[in-house]
Amino acid sequence: MLASSVLFFILPILLSPLLSSGVQFPFNVSYNIDCGGSTNSVDQFNRTWLSDRFYTGGSTGLVSEPLHFHPLQEKTLRFFPLSSGKKNCYVVDLPNGRYYVRTFTVYDNYDGKSHSPSFDLSVEGTLVFSWRSPWPEDISQHGAYSDLFVYVNDGEADVCFYGIATDSPVIGSLEIVQIDASSYDSATIGTNHMLVNYGRFSCGSDQWGPGFTNDTDFFGRSWQSDVEFRAKNSNIKRLSTSKTIVNTSQSPNYFPMRLYQSAVTVTGNGALEYELQVDAKLDYLLWFHFAEIDASVNAAGKRVFDVVINGNNVTRIDVYKRVGGFAADNWHYVVKNLSDTVLTVKLAPFVGAPILSGLENYALVPADLSTVPDQVMAMRALKESLRVPDRMGWNGDPCAPVNWDAWEGVTCHPNKEETALVVSQIDLGSQGLKGFISDQIGHLSNLVSLNLSSNFLEGTIPSGLGQKSLARLDLSNNQLSGSIPESLASSSLQLVLLNDNLLEGRVPDDLFSVGVHGGSIDLLGNKALCGVSPLPSCPLFWDHGSLSTGGKVAIGLACSFIFCVLLLVIYICCIRRGNNDYDFGLPQDLMSLAAKRNKYQRQKSLMLLEMESQHAKGFPSTLNLQSESS
């Protein structure tokens, strides 16, 4: 039989799925995803169905008897074999808000094994549906719809599957429609509860609603007939009208007019009774729908009845007094502290016969804790950088739901305030990983233990890896290069295994204190690590494959000394020049005197030459004559 840790109501397949793409008011965000479909398609209600190939992994399948299913999206399915990992998810980007989510699940012996699978399904990190083998024959062959209302606060909807033992989860279609955030009395119930459908029916009519008929429901809800929920001893009279019903399709719930155009009452003085299957561990929201569509009831006091839930008379209703005739009215009640798996609802007559147009029953499922958003992003970045294989099932929220194991090799726990989950341990030793360690690992601020040993990781050790919480670090037997970051010295490490890598450079002195204070450290088998014994001493001016701090200081001091000497030389030269006041240019008067002197010397030389010439020709020397006469 079909078991559930959180029981849910299954709508049997009669026609075709829910209308959601036609929803244009009040919101225009809706997705119809054909699980296993290879291309986009349009159904008989003019709804566009999207292939799911961009939303998840796994494999595609086809029901064994496709002629039994009219819509194309019911014939195809997506299944997740063990090779895809224990956990697989659909991730759909959405604006934050409240959403109606509906799934169609079918087996129909698609794999020829005649074994319907056991698996769990979660929405936004909270376990909501549990399928257990064997399924009821009708559901296994024809499939079933399940739906709920949920708040999305992280910009994406996660619908995840968790296989039990070696079984492969399956899904036929997935529909997501944005609805009014204040619907179904969210102000009172709060935003930390999901409303999981345990029964939604319309009285006095057959099954109808988007995907089943052309009738419109802006939220995408479909409505079953109430026949299978009524107590067998009820003497039922069906009522219907084609008149307009006022107060329908109004904010915030937008209940359709069709819901109030039919109803049931009873003949004689009997009560109208329903029996609803529930999980006694949960609370339930009952939403009643009334409309006085009997024209003979035209005044207050003509039809009055009591609402009795599990034997408790909780209220008295006079529909005409509340809203008048041919007008929609609804009333809701939260049932708590159940002691049985059957919830009874009875409308007992006070004046006249009771009347009911419809009833909804929702389990109030508390939302589980989810992982801190920064750590979700860090883990997803780590998944990409480490090239984590699909078989490990690193999909959706790393830690949620808490009923399941976290991602393979990952351990989580609640934070101090117990408002979210945090990652405390990652153990991926000997997994054949061939990537590198993402810098985003620094956002795992609660990480206590990290083991990535005996893989093929390359690159450097991120500087962000040195959280105060980190106590155990094993990166041995990889191909990590570069230096050991100083950040590791500031953590609370008790075990450090970095041996058999390609690390080089000076080891931070404080890191050696791990061994001194009773911890364990192994740095052997690296390329060129140096520092405290037993490692070799580091070069004076060379460290971490480049100049060490001492080398940089020495070069800086040398440059400073040379600069100071140059300044001193320039200063001395300037001082000496100032004291002697030398001017290497010749004065103008001195230049004129020299020119005259040179001219006189030339004239004297010419006169001496002339006298010598006359003396040679026998002419008396004028100079001598003048001397004798004197």
What does this structure look like?
By secondary structure, this protein is α+β, with helices and mostly antiparallel strands. 17% of the residues lie in helices and 30% in strands. It has 9 helices and 37 strands. Strands 1, 2, 3, 4, 8, 11, 14, 15, 16, 20, 23 and 26 form a 12-stranded mixed sheet that branches. A hairpin with a 2-residue loop joins strand 9 and strand 10 (126-131). The radius of gyration is 46 Å and the shape is elongated.
Q: What keyword list fits this structure?
A:
630 residues, alpha+beta, 12-stranded mixed β-sheet, 6-stranded mixed β-sheet, 37 strands, elongated, disordered N terminus, disordered C terminus
Helix and strand topology:
Blueprint: E1 11-12, E2 30-34, E3 41-42, E4 48-51, E5 59-62, H1 72-75, E6 76-79, E7 87-93, E8 97-105, E9 119-123, E10 126-131, H2 137-142, E11 144-152, E12 156-163, E13 170-171, E14 173-179, H3 186-189, E15 193-202, E16 224-225, E17 236-240, E18 262-266, E19 272-277, E20 283-291, E21 304-309, E22 312-317, H4 319-323, E23 328-335, E24 342-351, E25 355-356, E26 358-366, H5 373-386, E27 410-414, E28 421-427, E29 449-451, E30 472-474, E31 481-482, E32 495-497, E33 502-506, H6 513-516, E34 520-522, E35 528-530, E36 542-543, E37 546-547, H7 549-580, H8 588-616, H9 622-629
Parallel strand pairs: 2-4, 15-16, 28-29, 29-30, 30-32, 31-33, 32-34, 33-35
Antiparallel strand pairs: 1-11, 2-14, 3-4, 5-6, 6-13, 7-12, 8-11, 8-14, 9-10, 9-12, 11-15, 15-26, 17-18, 18-25, 19-24, 20-23, 20-26, 21-22, 21-24, 27-28, 36-37
